[in-house]
Amino acid sequence: MNLAVKDIRHNLGRFALTALGIGMLLMIVMGMGGIYRGIIEDATLLVDKAGADLWVVQRGTRGPFAEVSRLPPNLVDRVAAIAGVADTRKFVFHTIQREHRGKPLRMAVLGLDWPTDRGEWLPLMAGRPLAQNHYEMIADRTLGLELDEQIPLGKDTFTVVGLTTGMIDSGGNGLAFFTALDAQAVQFDLPGEAIRLERAARRGRADRIDLSSTQPGLLDRAEGVSAAIPALAPPAVSAILVRVQSGVDPLTVASTISGWADVSVHTREDERQLMLAGPVEKAKLQIGLFRVLLTIISAIVMALILYTMTLDKLQSIALLKLIGAPNRVILGMILQQALVLGALGYGIAYLLGQRIFPRFPRRVILTENDLIELAVIVLGISVLSSLLGMWKAARVSPNEALSG
Amino acid sequence: MSDSLAIETKLLTKVYGSGNTEVVAMRDVSLGVRRGEVVALLGPSGSGKSTFLTAVGLINPPTAGQILINGQLVMDGPRAIVDPTAFRRKHIGYIFQKSNLIPFLSGRENVQVALELAGWRPGKARQRALELLDYLGVADRADNMPAALSGGQQQRVAVARALANQPSIILADEPTAALDRNRGRQVMELFAKVAHEQNAGVIVVTHDERTLEVFDTTYEMEDGVIRPGAGNAHHAMPAEAR
After folding, report:
1. What ipTM was estimated for this complex?
2. Is pLDDT above 80 for B17?
3. How many CB atoms lie under 10 A from the CB of residue A247?
């Protein structure tokens, strides 16, 4: 006869509610781990998906995801000329926030190097890759946009031609993919009045120098479009992605690029580690501490519940001892109840999590290893939390059965 | 003489506290109970009856004196000669003022658990439990939880549990206190019946003098001292004197 099960069945309602409470606590612990995995996955997603062996960025910076990096677009040709480079791509990345359907729409804009890169590598769940140099975009489904929807950005209107799934930046924003030119147009879009003021300011500066007297045409240029002024560089790109030829060590190409004074170069692994050590590190520590605290709280709550359950049946325990039940039978009963409570709580946490986590704004990824790790932790908590109850039960004298 | 006695105590003394707070709950109690004999222990509250009963039941060790069960020395002063838990399981049956059933077990399971603790296989223990409940007239309530049983039915289940392992001694503390006169008498008669049938030595602590004719022998306790009850002097003498 299993006394633990008999006692649980006798107090089924209370036990079920307790298990539900423990389950919800454990679900939060589980969710915290899942959020952490999601952050790591999101942070390294682009680095992994882009498939570049090397990332060339502005000198002294750690790449477009960690901080602002600006490079001249013609750098793509300079890098392509290095021996061992298979191909190079411009990479434009920035985050914008616009109003859409009366709500703020925040998206990470990523420029693809048309026509080399049309987004074929993206995990499309609907639609197609980019098919023209302008006015098309591919959006992640988390942005809430629909296929063929028209989105005005800057002075242009873009059509959603493809939808991806799981493409999120390290900040949790859905990604939108444009050609690099369109991405730059969105990034450097200025209102007409700002352009007119900038041109007037340039004219004023030109007026104040002798050069405008000797070369009056300069004044006309100063009032014209920026792209027509040789001294002003065209809009910058965030990084250059480099893929090396098969059989070539990326470090060999990297050593050549690192000799240039105007850029820095990172391998794919460097870029991953920079992501993980930078923005993700603090989140990891924060979530890790929360997990530890929640785990301790779960253990304390479980211990108190098991202790209370033990107090409730002290008379029965004394009686069992009186009729000759050895301590191992009593302690076994409490331990089994703790394990059942832990196992039920874990199961509830998993089932609830499966339904609730997909509704979280950030991705919650439950890996098999994390689930096994939590199961072991719950097992440990169950055993530890039963100690208080077992200690109390061990001290019960059979004499107490007579005093009831 | 010890060979024929189910229970024998020699100069049992129990002292609580020390110095100014010292209380002598039981003083030099010597008693013998034969197999098949039903003994009543009378006395006012605080007279030491329960202290004596818990000492003989190996629950509350005496400060001094000896306890022999079936001729075997089990307690020598406060020192246990045997493993009290294992010994209780095999040789002693208890019945209390309240039925003291385990609330999360049915009537049948309350009996069955005592058998399983003694090493019975679950199937056989279940069978034996049902037989005992049938013997005590509560087989039809075997699957009821204690809360659904009347006081008399609960007490019968408790008796069944006490008898489950065919103990050589049965100790009962005010077993009829929660019952009306008729039911109290029925329970007392039941003790006498099973004591005689199972050849067990029975000690019943009671206040209820209306049922004394059921008992083979009566003793009275007052201020921790035991003396023979009226009309049965042949058993009332202290053991060392016999």
Report:
1. 0.77
2. yes
3. 6
